[in-house]
Amino acid sequence: CACLCGLGSSRACQCHQECQGPAEKAAPQGKPAPAEKHLEADAAALCCADLPVEVLVEIFGSLPGTDLPSLALACTKFHHILHTDSIWRRRCREEFGLRENLQNLEMMGMSYREVYAKLFHPYRGILGLWQLDTEGYKTLLNVVVDGLLITGWTYGPCLNLHVDGPMQFKPSFRICLTERKSATVECMEGRHSRPHSRHIQIGKNRFSTRCNKTDHLKDLPTRLREDWARVLVQKDRLQYDCLTYRRLYLPPSHPDDLIRPGLFQGKYHRFGLMIAMLSFHGKYARVTKITGNFTQTLEIHLMRRIQLGDGKIFRNFNTLYRVVLEIDEQVIREQEDGTEESGGYGWQSPSQPSVGESGAAASEEQPVPFVLPVGVSSRLQNYPRTCRMCFYGVDIVTTCGSGCPWRFPGVFILFDENHFGFISLETKYFILFGRVQNTFQNVEAPSPQAFLKMLKNIQSRPV
């Protein structure tokens, strides 16, 4: 109220003082009377109601759209002003990035207020990045505002892309306003009857979609048909393609991180590129695979650096193997003694600074030649020829239906800000990772704790 009256926060609002009764004036300082909260709101409404309409339009347009319905209940004047479409045009632009002009809406017979209330607000909870929650093949879904539509784009791995190429997406569903000015969900998958009706159920940090077409699996490669979706049979014996997704957050960054965390693409096998998430947790870094049909995690020990020696260590596999094996045996002993976290990475908050080598130190390191050791295979031969740092790490793999993970010690190799790799010494296999160049919206975790919770659950068994 003081701000709207043009008074500073250190000065009392005169209109509120005038509205106070004897009971409020007599109340001890710092202990408001029971009804004071309501009187403050009433006083603010009375004060604002005296302002010019154009000023109120500017003020209301700067408020979050979720607050405006309550504001409309304050008085009749506010209720009428909040039907001004320029207010909702600003909210659509600032909250959802909408750039449609008024003429396009008028041709459709719609207003910004209707677009906000019937499309953006009800479905704002699904905007962002999601992982398919299934025991089979996990993929990603990116839900974005696309003009006067909300579109869900499914990540589709390509067999022939290099790790530096962009992620490939195809439309999965769209939400739009119809001529009846009600939002409808349309499925964009399947060979026949496309698009067709689809139902969305939104929960906290997860949502599910269902439609009555069962030909979606025909569009997928043969190797993925059985794992991509879960087909449920309802009581009426109609088959539904039912998919459940859980929210993904991108890892928060810290200036001391070795490199900027985020999403990376890796060539794991002949079935194409897979997506993994790099995050830092104090003494450890974690590379979590978030697409594919099995669980795989790289645990990088940032306190156990391997000296490169002008790159000579890569030329002799036996020497590299012996160095890593000695570190691995020491780590196992310390885990048994309780001096090393049994899980490796330790789940320290990613908002805390990393312990060990920093990003500044990595950038100052002189590159040394890198070659794959003799006998180590890779799906990609176009890998960087110089690297900056190496660390001991462990590749932990859990296949579908297996509760016991396989553990493969190896070497984490930092090439530059956008590339790293891992050599698994037991399998003699090298994986190259390149930073994903796509940008994503609505992927910031509300807190470091929320990101940790997501990371712990991201590869758990589906609910």
TrEMBL record:
Spans traversing the lipid bilayer: none
Any one GO CC term of the record: SCF ubiquitin ligase complex
Protein family membership: Belongs to the FBXO31 family.
Key word Transmembrane helix present: no
Keywords for the protein's UniProt record, in alphabetical order: Ubl conjugation pathway
Domain spans labelled F-box: 45-91
Record-given protein name: F-box domain-containing protein
Segments for region (Disordered): 338-360
Species annotation: Myotis lucifugus
Pfam families: Cyclin_D1_bind, F-box-like
Gene Ontology terms describing biological process: protein ubiquitination; SCF-dependent proteasomal ubiquitin-dependent protein catabolic process
Pathway the protein contributes to: Protein modification; protein ubiquitination
